[in-house]
């Protein structure tokens, strides 16, 4: 009688190795981010700076409570002295919560494509020998119409997608971020579309906290002057903690207060920090400007879009990345056609400009993604968008007057 023996452990292990490994999205994440609590919080690679910022906030407030606010409790009637202590503690917790909301959330990361878009443009710059097929090449730059102005969007080699308007690739976090403002080392996170509101609230609230501590330090010094009939310097000598706090908060007000004023200007003109330093909209028309009221409404009174990433979703580890060929052209590892869906912005799907193409056939967009990701509501400030298949050779020529370049790392 023929007996079938059970498989050996080594054979079972080999079968397990052949099966795709299933992980959560944050475990297979290709960026440089740090995740906590099973992917519920996402930080930048410099997350340690968050704890430094918390110490820079809590330490002076603790000194203020111990050596200044506690002394003022009995100097004000009707328990107003206790209110000074309660307000500074509550306001400190509020500032720290805003810091964590800025640092621990998805700033607007656009998911990477699993494969590059299907190349469509013939690389006319390459010499083709007899019997050889011209090589297809991805255009490095495409043109987008934003409020009647031409804006150039660039292809991201790392994320394998065309960046939407106002999007840039952060070299620190290694992600493409919507409405990229800057990477803030003090919060250890990129500042983008989904956390800019909390960043501004954090900076402005920290400014008010500094002003609050600075003001009551001077109140305490003045009380010492009147009670002991001494000069300002004599009163300051009697409270060295106030001297340290006055110097510290005075310098801090210039820093966080300056940031608050600067970002008020950026919000009123609907610019990001990156755009302000790179494009200088004061010398050209800003296609995203909706007027002062509309710009403030966009930042503070519009709903924050949901994250395009489900960091706790189960995914399979990719076996290998697609093969890249030098010269800017790509070869897909599985030679399959990648379905492309047009980007829908504010409920309006963009249309490609009708331009003459080789062979006169219809062209489809290279802006898209394989898989289940649907890029929706790319930029809340964009009201009408159209895409052009024009290719800029070398990434610099071929632009129209007034065109803008989307940031590239």
From TrEMBL:
Its main location: membrane. PROSITE patterns: DHHC. It comes from Deinandra increscens subsp. villosa. The lineage of its organism: Eukaryota, Viridiplantae, Streptophyta, Embryophyta, Tracheophyta. GO terms for biological process: protein targeting to membrane. Keywords: Acyltransferase, Membrane, Transferase, Transmembrane, Transmembrane helix. It comes from the Eukaryota. It catalyses: L-cysteinyl-[protein] + hexadecanoyl-CoA = S-hexadecanoyl-L-cysteinyl-[protein] + CoA. Belongs to the DHHC palmitoyltransferase family. It is found in: Endomembrane system. It is an enzyme of class 2 (transferase). The DHHC domain is required for palmitoyltransferase activity. The keyword Transferase applies. Its EC number is 2.3.1.225. Residues 154-278 form the Palmitoyltransferase DHHC domain. This is S-acyltransferase. One of its GO terms (molecular function) is protein-cysteine S-palmitoyltransferase activity. One of its GO terms (cellular component) is Golgi apparatus. It is a multi-pass membrane protein. InterPro entries: Palmitoyltrfase_DHHC, PFA4/ZDH16/20/ERF2-like. Residues 349-409 are annotated as: Disordered. The chain crosses the membrane at residues 50-69, 81-102, 198-221, 241-267.
